[in-house]
Amino acid sequence: MSRKRKGQAVHGWVVVDKPTGVTSTQVVGIVRRVFDAQKAGHAGTLDPLATGVLAVALGEATKTVPFAQDAEKTYRFTARWGIATDTDDAEGKPVSTSDKRPTRAEIEAAVPRFTGKISQVPPAYSAIKVEGARAYDLAREGETVALAPRLVEIHEARLLEVPDLEHAVFEMVCGKGAYVRAWVRDLAIALGTYGHVSALRRARIGAFSEKDSVPLESLRGFMHSPAAFEHLRPLSTALDGIPALAVTGPDAVRLRSGNPILMRANLFARIAESLSEGCDLEGLTVYLFTGDGEPVALAELESGELRPFRVFNFG
Prior knowledge:
Number of domains: 3
Structural class: alpha+beta
CATH architecture of the largest domain: 2-Layer Sandwich
Low-confidence stretches: none
CATH class of the largest domain: Alpha Beta
Number of strands: 20
Helix content: 10-25%
CATH superfamily of the largest domain: Pseudouridine synthase
């Protein structure tokens, strides 16, 4: 006999404005308690030093977390020149220093070299797994962590201001896997100095932005209160950009049982209309919902069928 889950069946996303000094895991725990939710997770870790958008998934929304994690992100951050730290941010211990301070002109000339697809070695203090262990755990235990370089995409990076000789403020739009700390570290070296991130804020991740976020302390004040649900966003919010299709009652029943449905001509036409001309539909991911708007499944189009690979259950 299976044990009943503690908490309520709450489904959706909460966009939290994370303050500095708390971990992403702690934020998830607070949100889960506020909503008395059975299950919760987040879409992308923010370091304790960082602030800004932390998207927390509740219930069946946790099945859409990978789509939010893969989404484009926007960061605003401050680089401090002249000091390298072991964590590449202000929480770490200084490991190297330099008297060189780059000028605005030098920074602006170097930034284009760090946009587009670039090779980047993640910080030793990161959540990347090394033989089953987190890199930051190994680093804290004093082990030397050698992470392989990876190709990441920096869609846009621009210098916002130079408040003084020691600091520069940037904004970056990037893809999955890019580390701001590594970007600042590498930019500083290219400028003939050292550097680390002294402040970091995530302004957006996919469809979740800071303008839609609720401060953590405000949310904490709604503990077990109906007012908290004003900040609960639909499960489908994380699926922005994925073609969506309404299905009939019988088709919804088949999909929820894990069975495929035929891609009838009318369904095919409705999906094709939402995509650019010439787009290959084979292997396409589609979000399926009922006529009442209730999520049913995520499915892939294969050989004329919509085959579910994530089914949403609200029972």
